[in-house]
Amino acid sequence: MPTKPSKELVVVANPHPDRVYDVEMRCPEFTTLCPMTGQPDFATITILYQPAEYIVELKSLKLYLWSFRDEGHFHEDVTNIILNDFVRAAQPRYARVTGEFNVRGGISTKVTVEYRRSEEPSVAG
Amino acid sequence: MPTKPSKELVVVANPHPDRVYDVEMRCPEFTTLCPMTGQPDFATITILYQPAEYIVELKSLKLYLWSFRDEGHFHEDVTNIILNDFVRAAQPRYARVTGEFNVRGGISTKVTVEYRRSEEPSVAG
Amino acid sequence: MPTKPSKELVVVANPHPDRVYDVEMRCPEFTTLCPMTGQPDFATITILYQPAEYIVELKSLKLYLWSFRDEGHFHEDVTNIILNDFVRAAQPRYARVTGEFNVRGGISTKVTVEYRRSEEPSVAG
Amino acid sequence: MPTKPSKELVVVANPHPDRVYDVEMRCPEFTTLCPMTGQPDFATITILYQPAEYIVELKSLKLYLWSFRDEGHFHEDVTNIILNDFVRAAQPRYARVTGEFNVRGGISTKVTVEYRRSEEPSVAG
Amino acid sequence: MPTKPSKELVVVANPHPDRVYDVEMRCPEFTTLCPMTGQPDFATITILYQPAEYIVELKSLKLYLWSFRDEGHFHEDVTNIILNDFVRAAQPRYARVTGEFNVRGGISTKVTVEYRRSEEPSVAG
Amino acid sequence: MPTKPSKELVVVANPHPDRVYDVEMRCPEFTTLCPMTGQPDFATITILYQPAEYIVELKSLKLYLWSFRDEGHFHEDVTNIILNDFVRAAQPRYARVTGEFNVRGGISTKVTVEYRRSEEPSVAG
Amino acid sequence: MPTKPSKELVVVANPHPDRVYDVEMRCPEFTTLCPMTGQPDFATITILYQPAEYIVELKSLKLYLWSFRDEGHFHEDVTNIILNDFVRAAQPRYARVTGEFNVRGGISTKVTVEYRRSEEPSVAG
Amino acid sequence: MPTKPSKELVVVANPHPDRVYDVEMRCPEFTTLCPMTGQPDFATITILYQPAEYIVELKSLKLYLWSFRDEGHFHEDVTNIILNDFVRAAQPRYARVTGEFNVRGGISTKVTVEYRRSEEPSVAG
Amino acid sequence: MPTKPSKELVVVANPHPDRVYDVEMRCPEFTTLCPMTGQPDFATITILYQPAEYIVELKSLKLYLWSFRDEGHFHEDVTNIILNDFVRAAQPRYARVTGEFNVRGGISTKVTVEYRRSEEPSVAG
Amino acid sequence: MPTKPSKELVVVANPHPDRVYDVEMRCPEFTTLCPMTGQPDFATITILYQPAEYIVELKSLKLYLWSFRDEGHFHEDVTNIILNDFVRAAQPRYARVTGEFNVRGGISTKVTVEYRRSEEPSVAG
């Protein structure tokens, strides 16, 4: 039974909601399409967050990142979109998304975007 | 005479209780079971702490980490559980537990949890 | 003007056909689909060959490797298919294709396939 | 639905049985028990083989390596056992199993065992 | 149709102008001429910036860095010039340019120059 | 004429006593005995200090570290003892001793201890 | 007084002409132009040779490699040209030129070309 | 109950005596004394062997290598002595001992010694 | 025409005197003599500074570092001397000199010395 | 009492003259002068040999390599000279000298020279 890509990030209850702690998930298998040329782009996406009420289920993150495979996005935009989607689903205290894009035209690009819930102090780790 | 896994973390008197200093123990041989699939998970567990009255005996830490071998735990949960058990046994000034879990579904996960005794200033090293 | 993936490997005349020499092309951006689950697989494909009358044009190789993006193949099979296609197009003295596939189920897989024109001696470099 | 460890290595038809080629599978998540002390041992198992009529299905290899988790074996013995089981199931032209066992008593141990079908010439890659 | 080097850095609208985030572009293919000896110099140029209204188009950055190929510049000067040109075109919140120049006379040189819009707080990542 | 281990750390006048600066000495050849089992332990000892009136003579440090070869000490204790001895002899503005002990029972241990003369500000480098 | 690029490779008498030995010179600062697009290409050129009557003067090799800066060449061709020029000037027993070209279109290319004087046995080191 | 160093290498029956295979044991914790100065020397000892009737028990190897701690030996001599002792105890088909000694006087030394039973063909792995 | 070592550090006008920026020069080819034994010592010298009115000319730095080749200096002293000479010549806002000295007696030594013009804020990069 | 550089390589009796074995000594602290410019050159010298009747005393090798400090030599020549001197003193079965010279003009150079006593078979390790 083949699985399918999905835009839905599934969350479950954080088993330790009272503690501020870090979860970092690193996926070196992100690919999307260049909106100018239609050619594939490749990146490593790293998401570091501090959960509040929810933690993000790992398998749904895999399906979520897969969902960009056939879409066209600029590097700066897609990194922001992932952060926005992640924050909407997980409602974390803090989140940071890093996209490390492979060399194009002799230049590699790394985009780092972060979110902090307004009432939160600075990141722990 | 075979040894056995144990949930008991043995402590001994800290020979230098007046000084704030760091002890970091790194174990790349942690394994547990996935509570969803029952399949083995593997991680490197690193415990950094600042002892107060006690230091943790190294052999008992080995047996303690071994005790998770046949249990099912989620990544975020087990890292918090190890911190809680460690703090209860060692009653340290500060403790931080990091679990670096191997790739599953193309994604690796690192969980970092910390504890600070309420009266303590920030970490030394 | 968007480019498109293509199964055609374009060759041009080898500027030094009388000399036996090695050309190695390494592409860490290969992706295909698992024929069992439909999920993306990722690999680094390395092609080492000794040209005879032709050398393979680099841009057409990029479009050729891209052409597997939406196809389903087993690791062992797709590495052999790339070698077969390459040999048919380039008609080299010697060719070796290596596919280094990312971790799945805690196991990484590397497939190495080679071809030697019957009248050729062993590889140079 | 939890999966289970299994001693059965599943094989499927080699899609390119006429070509001699290499398949290398590397699993850094192998664990067994020391038959003397009952304590866990950890190793990276690497299997390189040249398929004949069959190739080994990756998921069954994962379940097979898992099956040693609760068994007690010496380093030299378990590496040979894996080779024997693999050869019996896959009937390859050539196979080599390497077990790189973690430090015990300040010493790390690597065991390398190989098999060659009597009629085969030496390994390709 | 051959492309040409260009001093013009093309910018496009920042798709997320309200968020402070980092973009880092690394080019290991920078070359210029030594103004004393006329001999080629080689460097890796890294540009980290926090976009405001604009982001810099990657291809134009490639053509811009190419434009130094036949010019003569001292290490300290050219790194400052790149920052000045970048700030003028991109009008970022923050920008930092690093030039890591290859060994000359047994000594390697790294120049780091930064700009911060007067009203901005300190860098995010 | 054989040299001998010695507990005496020889100091000489700091040639630049008015400047706060760092001296770091790293010795990967430290060995002592486990007080429980009598078996050898191995560590890398790193001493970072900011000299005041004195600097420590390198050869005497070698003989001093050698003096632990036949003594039995716990990891946490011996690192503190080295700091205490060093501070007593060198009377530095600041000193930090790190002991990185080799794997025992699958776990490596790093102990970091520091001293600051009460009137000193924080470390320079 | 500025130096100039030059196609002339200067040789001097081999001080040990009776011994077969290896000289390897590695230059990570090679750049040329793509004959299709006119854009710069970058490579590391490594020359390994066994001198006969002559050795190649290092400074002239630098000027020689510089001479390709404004010329257009395909990867496979320029590596062969360097070997041909080197063999003509140095008349070595053996020579091998390797060109490791930077990523273009997600693919890096390495070209290895060798020459052996007909009466020579195989390479020493 | 403290353990003691011992010159006796304990062997047990090889569970797979009919197969030629490699066992490599690496100990980075070897120390002895310089017979000239009496000062400690440090080395990594690696033993690769092909067992015949016996394999060497790991714990006894640890105690054996420990037995050199208070003895004085030259680098070349002690590496040969270890090989001789190992061959006498294990009676292997093949054995190779490598001693990588730490820097002394700005020079590091590596000694490699091997033994082959007269009737054996060349090493497998 | 042979060049000569020189104690004179040549400076030229800083082309961007109004900006605070970093210049780091790293020389792994520093050698001097031990004042006790007369034997050669070797180090990597790294100079990081923030220029004010002047920048230091690279070739003169090479000749300056060369000038220590036949002099005898202790590690701590020579690192301070280089900083003093550099500050006197370049009159920078900030300067830091690091000397990483090779292993002697099993111990490597790193000396870090810094200078800050009294009116300057803290270092940029 | 300062030591002095010396051209004399001291040998002592090989304690195991009947066995063919390898001794490799690596010195990253070799420096000489460029005979053209008079400027210092730096290299790592590695000597691998198979002793016959003699082994070379380590301290004398240090003094011997030191003796080149104030002499002018070309890379190819000095590597051959070291081999010739070594063979004359040690009269080994086999010897190989490698000189890895630091970057000059953007190019690093490695020279490998070997000697084999006419009656010897090929090298062991």
What's the quick description here?
Chain A is an alpha+beta fold and 125 residues long. Chain A contains 2 helices and 6 strands; from the N terminus they run E-E-E-E-H-H-E-E.
Mean pLDDT of chain A: 94
Strand content of chain A: 35-45%
Poorly predicted runs of chain A are none
**Annotated CATH architecture of chain A:** 2-Layer Sandwich
CATH topology of chain A: GTP Cyclohydrolase I, domain 2
Please give the most extensive interface between any two protein chains, plus how many residues each contributes. Answer: C-D, 19 and 22 residues
Number of strands of chain A: 6
Helix amount of chain A, in percent? 10-25%
Main sheet of chain A?
A: 4 strands, antiparallel
How widely separated are the two ends of chain A?
Answer: 40 Å
The coarse silhouette of chain A is globular
CATH superfamily name of chain A? GTP cyclohydrolase I, C-terminal domain/NADPH-dependent 7-cyano-7-deazaguanine reductase, N-terminal domain
What CATH first level of chain A would be assigned?
Answer: Alpha Beta
Describe it for me?
By secondary structure, chain A is an alpha+beta fold. Chain A has one domain: 2-Layer Sandwich (GTP Cyclohydrolase I, domain 2), CATH 3.30.1130. Chain A is built from 2 helices and 6 strands. Chain A has helices spanning 58-66, 75-90, and strands at residues 11-13, 22-33, 40-50, 54-56, 94-104, 107-116. In chain A, the strands form 2 sheets. In chain A, strands 2-3-5-6 form a 4-stranded antiparallel sheet, covered by helices on one side. A two-stranded antiparallel ribbon of chain A has the order 1-4. Chain A is globular. The model of chain A has no long low-confidence stretch (mean pLDDT 94).
